[in-house]
Design a protein that fits this description.
With 210 residues, the chain is of the alpha+beta class. The chain contains 7 helices and 5 strands. It is elongated. The model has no long low-confidence stretch (mean pLDDT 92).
């Protein structure tokens, strides 16, 4: 990835462009930004040829060219088009937005696809742990939740993070009541246990712009 894409982009492609260009990558996922559309289109064609030269190929069904950034909303409005498109990268959906003062910002929220997958994973994980002691299950869940909060706890994503905790809570209630023929908890008793006996980690408020 370094030689095929990053070195080539920074040392060969960028010096010959008229506008700004930048790249962000993680493993084999990457986003490339261009100031001018024609340079983005030309780069995409050159990239396909370069990848093929090294016996590689792009997953073209996952590749998109979109208009994004501080001028995208006005440009699309003048052309009679809708809101700027969004894109998913590293588990987040990136959205053109504005601050309370009207300045452009990129808003990030947990991508729907990643959220659904994580909810299914945690439901299955709790089911696998259901024979453990309740305090041990919650200790494991708190480790997972804290890691989740650290990654997805960016400014503006608080509702999605709270939604994930709520899903964990409901999944735990479901599985604790499947450990025997007799129902272990009603909803009120379950919440009292979480509140007073074995607290489930909560996210802190987000005040940092990322």
């Amino acid at each position: 990835m370094h030689y095929v894409l990053l070195w080539w982009f920074n040392e060969i492609v960028v010096p010959n462009l008229e506008g700004y260009a930048g790249i962000v990558n993680y493993a084999d996922d990457f986003v490339v930004c261009f100031q001018y559309k024609q340079e983005a289109v030309a780069f995409y064609e050159r990239l396909k040829h370069r990848m093929a030269h090294f016996g590689l190929s792009l997953a073209e069904e996952k590749c998109r060219l979109i208009e994004f950034g501080r001028f995208a909303e006005n440009n699309r409005r003048h052309r009679g088009e809708g809101k700027p498109e969004t894109f998913d990268f590293l588990g987040f959906t990136h959205i053109c937005s504005r601050t309370g003062n009207g300045y452009f910002k990129v808003r990030r929220k947990t991508s729907r696809k990643k959220f659904i997958k994580k909810c299914k994973d945690i439901f299955r994980r709790i089911g696998q742990m259901r024979t453990m002691k309740t305090k041990e299950i919650i200790a494991k869940l708190n480790e997972i939740l804290i890691g989740y909060y650290h990654y997805y706890g960016v400014y503006g994503n608080y509702p999605a993070v709270i939604a994930f905790r709520w899903h964990v809570l409901k999944s735990l209630f479901y599985w604790l009541n499947r450990r025997s023929q007799k129902k272990s908890y009603n909803w009120k008793g379950f919440l009292d246990m979480i509140k007073f006996g074995h607290p489930l980690a909560r996210p802190k408020s987000f005040y940092v712009y990322i």
